[in-house]
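[Meeting: bench + compute handoff]

Bench side (C.D.) handed over the final construct sequence. Compute side (W.E.) agreed to return the predicted structure before the next meeting so the bench team could plan truncations. Sequence as handed over:
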Amino acid sequence: MTDASLNEGLPHEAGFGDYVALLKPRVMSLVVFTAFVGLLVAPVNVHPFIGLVAILCIAVGAGASGALNMWWDADIDAVMRRTAKRPIPAGKVQPEEALALGLALSGFSVVLLWLATNWFAAALLAFTIFFYAVVYSMWLKRSTPQNIVIGGAAGAFPPMIGWAVATGGVSIESVLMFALIFMWTPPHFWALALFMKSDYDDAGVPMLTVTHGRKATRAHVLVYTAFLVPVAVGIAFTSIGGWVYGAVAVVANLWFLRGAWQIWRRDEAVSEADGYAVEKRVFKISLLYLFAHFGALLIEAVLRAGGLT
């Protein structure tokens, strides 16, 4: 027998990339960006080194949440096409390894953030990890079609944490940044659910497409996008907003609202015929939408720092 035949059926040895994948790096990039903007637009200056440590802690905390989520969701990840190649269902990382990594990184990120900044920011990070890993992953995701609505709070906390690092508290500005992501999350994920077809049915996840049907989901995308618009545009009139942000918000929200309207008007047969082209395009727009808003806030902060506004 050859070495190759002897190794058939044995678990694959995990590589560094497999452990990185456990941390959901694409989600982490969004967390890091929004937290960084929340930190930078705050009215209190933070030493660059302290700021770097804080962002690192928030990134590690986000990765810890991802590892704990993958540990808990390994059974349904194995069923869904979109997640079947993740490290645990692919047999590259053992579930207990993911759990240990998630718990270790959780403790490390929270304690270090407390020591480097303040207890409030650390407590907010700890609550965010708990909310995503326990409230969303263990409870909401498998029990209610409101899973992505309520669970969206987990992804909305990072800019609040960044703000708390600088100020030690919350304000209307940080609450509005939270609300922007919170209101954006449902139409973003429902657009994805529409073209993922039977994944959520197969996994037994009560996504809105499963419990209320695809037509109702299309209507929800439009309604939530409409509620999102005033929140997003309203930030322009706060201390962190301005004409640059206002212009970006108006254009981006008209673009997103137009896409939501097109999704609502679509017939399921037409969508199947063209491979859910519109739904996929609106999902991509939703990603650009969030980066555009927080990017505009970043520009506003730079302009204020340079005395240009």
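W.E. noted at the follow-up: The chain has two domains: 15-169, 171-309. C.D. will use this when planning the next construct.
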